[in-house]
Amino acid sequence: VRKQTFRLLIVEDEPALLRGLTDLFRGRGFDVITASDGAAGLEAALSGQPHLILLDIMLPRMNGYEVCRRIREEKMAVPIIMLTARGQEQDIIRGLDLGADDYVTKPFNLGELTARVNALLRRLEPTGSTCSFGDCEIDLVAQTVRRNGNPIALTAKELKLLLFLIENRGRALSRDAILNAVWGTAVFVTSRSVDRCVTTLRAKVEPDSHNPVHIKTLRDVGYRFEP
Ligand code: CA
């Protein structure tokens, strides 16, 4: 079976890093296109129709936030992974709010980066009416959850949170994004409500709620669901 060739756009102004990433992904069978400034990156995103974009933030001519914002303004749903500096949580959250899907912090581990790329590309595959992870199976139509074949009871908020996480699997989600999606903007709740609901949900679906493998905490940022 011939696998689909994915086209990857890498926007990075540091020549050595751009070359290294290009070699890495070409070596893994990707069709790679590159740009070394923001304006060229936006142009390549619009004309090249990539399946995924690796986007640096600090770029000449147009920064990564602006590139991201303009891509979403064009209604392009292409997954975007931001390449960010460590310890810049506010910048990461800003990028996610502008429509980026995920991030890796520099200097990054190449294994981690390829795992994040693959997780987002898997989203392009069609999903069925059920989703399973660990020993849980969710019927997305009936909205019921079974663990080891036995039905488990989730509160309405836990269920809504779980369905939102599944729908956005592989994406980094800020607490605000989760809050808006699950609680809405009409009620007064804080991001602490998100953390509390995650804690009770983990107790019901994680193999070990103290060492979660599906609902991952992203320090100072939010959460990411990994089936
Ligand atoms: Ca840069």
> How helical, in percent, are the residues?
40-55%
Q: How large is the share of residues in beta strands?
A: 15-25%
The CA-CA distance between the termini, in Å, is: 25 Å
Number of strands: 12
Order of helices and strands: EHEHEHEHEHEEEEHEHHEE
User: Can you tell me the residue ranges where pLDDT is under 50 for at least 5 consecutive residues?
Assistant: none
Bound compounds, please? calcium ion
Largest sheet: 5 strands, parallel
Number of helices: 8
Shape: globular
**Neighbour order of strands in the largest sheet:** 2-1-3-4-5
Quaternary structure state of the chains depicted: single chain
Computed over alpha carbons, the radius of gyration is 18 Å
Give the mean pLDDT: 93
Structural class: alpha/beta
Structural overview:
The chain has eight helices and twelve strands. It has helices at residues 15-27, 38-48, 64-73, 89-97, 110-122, 156-167, 175-182, 191-205, and strands at 7-11, 31-35, 52-56, 80-85, 102-106, 130-133, 136-139, 144-147, 150-151, 172-174, 215-218, 222-225. A five-stranded parallel beta sheet has the order 2-1-3-4-5, sandwiched between helices. A four-stranded antiparallel beta sheet has the order 6-7-8-9, with no helix packed on it. Strand 8 (144-147) and strand 9 form a beta hairpin. Helix 7 packs across helix 8 (191-205). The longest helix has 15 residues, at 191-205. The chain is globular. Bound molecules: calcium ion. Residues 13-14, 56, 58-59 line the site of calcium ion.
